[in-house]
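tokens incoming
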């Protein structure tokens, strides 16, 4: 199927063609006709599937062609509301609106916390057709009466599962209560949990269901490897991998903000240009680091899960999990940063003894065993070293079964060749990993 077959407004097709897209992705093929027809939509799709264009394009078409639609600034109140869990995603969705709507007289605006509210108020006053917002800041505007949601015709809840994880459910319900009863609703979620089902039942009327990524299946296009090593060796191993595999544009995941900063510093010291992005950084600092990374001035970007949500970089080739996430679904989100829209990508996870339970949970979730690789000179010791007190898990010491060679061996050899190793599946064992969700609200 070609984009031209979807019947989108010529000015939208022109903007899409300029992006170099000729074939709609599966979610776009299914979602665009449903939204154009005015249906509510329940879409199960991860980031990387092309979901943003999947809702942005038909929304722009509806605004440009609807019966009472002159796209004038007369009413000044937004007609489309897109709620996103993070400010980064809000910025990116709004950028997509601008990209695809560049030949249409459409006004869009992203409002999110962490930055001054006054410029947003001034922009809202000028009139906005498509408002993209994080829930907290939107409610601030509602309270200050600087936004009127009474003319919303289309409501989009993007990454709904993440919204719930981040504790936004009450805010979402408050916002929904402010919308006109008569409207079109589109709900996007990477997973379809009972909570999402509940939310969907209350929100959607006879929705068309679209499911492009079977629940929690890791992207097929991403080559995934596990390098088993010791916790204390991870930083050296990372530097080694960066240098010997000539990795570039690498997104590295760390579990904590402090850890992300420390790792970026360590890479810098090894003359690998790196920046960190996390919730404690100001919006300005995050945007700067992200654009330096996109421009290739930084080779590596170290991020926490929350900060990385919604980072949209075309054809990101590598993701490294410096530490595994506690929540297995986050692994799927992380590797979804690469291998996008049909590109191949590579995800490497550095896994120490303590992380075996998380690895086991991840493999259970994605229903496959990940390839183990040993990097010479960084072999995992037979027994885990005691954990520093800051860690949440108790030391696990039954890891001897998977040691390679003599304990602590191989250290004298020049670090180098990685040898693929068949994975036996049941590794180390242990009960399910910690299921704590961490979340932060952006206001
Ligand atoms: P998303 O899932 O919305 O985050 O989009 C993932 C990436 O795919 C973005 O970088 C888009 O620019 C890109 N993309 C979206 N639609 C298409 C398409 N039809 N063909 C090629 N790339 C696309």
């Amino acid at each position: 199927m070609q984009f031209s077959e979807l019947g989108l407004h010529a000015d939208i097709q022109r903007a899409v063609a300029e992006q170099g897209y000729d074939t709609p992705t599966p979610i776009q093929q299914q979602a665009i006709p449903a939204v154009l027809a005015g249906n509510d939509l329940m879409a199960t799709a991860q980031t990387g599937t092309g979901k943003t264009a999947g809702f942005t394009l038909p929304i722009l078409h509806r605004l440009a062609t609807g019966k009472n639609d002159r796209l004038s600034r007369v009413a000044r109140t937004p007609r489309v509301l897109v709620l996103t869990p993070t400010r980064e995603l809000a910025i990116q969705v709004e950028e997509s609106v601008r990209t695809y709507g560049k030949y249409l007289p459409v006004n869009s605006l992203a409002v999110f916390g962490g930055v001054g509210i006054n410029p947003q108020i001034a922009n809202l006053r000028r009139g906005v057709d498509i408002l993209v917002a994080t829930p907290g800041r939107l409610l601030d505007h509602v309270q200050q009466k600087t936004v009127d949601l009474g003319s919303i015709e289309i409501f989009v809840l993007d990454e709904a599962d993440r919204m719930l994880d981040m504790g936004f459910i009450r805010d979402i319900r408050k916002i929904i209560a402010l919308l006109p009863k008569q409207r079109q609703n589109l709900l996007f979620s990477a997973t379809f949990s009972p909570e999402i089902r509940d939310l969907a039942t209350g929100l959607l009327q006879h929705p068309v269901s679209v499911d492009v990524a079977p629940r929690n299946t890791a992207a097929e296009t991403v080559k995934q490897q596990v390098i088993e090593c010791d916790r204390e060796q991870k930083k050296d191993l990372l530097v080694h991998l960066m240098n010997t595999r000539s990795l570039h544009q690498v997104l590295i995941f760390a579990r904590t903000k402090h850890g992300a900063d420390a790792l970026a510093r360590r890479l810098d010291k090894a003359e690998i240009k790196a920046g960190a992005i996390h919730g404690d950084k100001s919006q300005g600092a995050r945007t700067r680091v992200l654009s330096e990374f996109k421009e290739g001035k930084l080779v590596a970007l170290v991020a926490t899960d929350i900060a990385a949500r919604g980072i949209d970089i075309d054809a990101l080739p590598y993701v490294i999990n410096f530490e595994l996430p506690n929540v297995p679904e986050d692994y799927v989100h992380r590797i979804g940063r690469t291998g996008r829209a049909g590109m191949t990508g590579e995800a490497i996870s550095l896994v120490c003894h303590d992380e075996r339970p998380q690895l086991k949970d991840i493999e259970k979730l994605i229903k496959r065993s990940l390839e183990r690789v040993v990097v010479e000179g960084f072999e995992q010791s037979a027994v885990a070293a005691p954990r520093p007190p800051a860690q949440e898990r108790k030391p696990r010491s039954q890891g001897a079964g998977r040691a390679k060679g003599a304990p602590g061996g191989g250290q004298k050899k020049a670090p180098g060749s990685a040898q693929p190793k068949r994975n036996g599946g049941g590794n180390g064992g242990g009960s399910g990993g910690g299921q704590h969700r961490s979340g932060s609200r952006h206001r």
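note: Residues 51-65 form the longest helix (15 residues).
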